[in-house]
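Hey L., structure's done. Input below.
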Amino acid sequence: MKILTACANGSGTSLMLLRTVKKTLEKMGYQVTQADHTSISEAKGIARNYDVVFTSIPFINMFDEVKKRGGEVIGIKNVISAKEVEDKVNASDIPTKFKK
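Output:
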């Protein structure tokens, strides 16, 4: 699965979120084939190339195009919470779209 994390500036928050998401997904048994982090402005242009976009909750509506093509957009409140990531992944369509 190809994942993208995005925050306002594309440096600190998105990098922390990327580390949390990648580690959590792999612990859950998913194969992450590509993992990148970037700013919201850049992410809007490249998100179509990813299976799942993780971002802060206020930004999820900026990725409606990803949802329209069948991708997943997951809003995260606490970027270092593996439990929140796991709960949100389990509540999404990821378990049915991607095999462990």
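The chain has five helices and four strands. Strands lie at 2-7, 34-39, 52-56, 72-76.

-- N.
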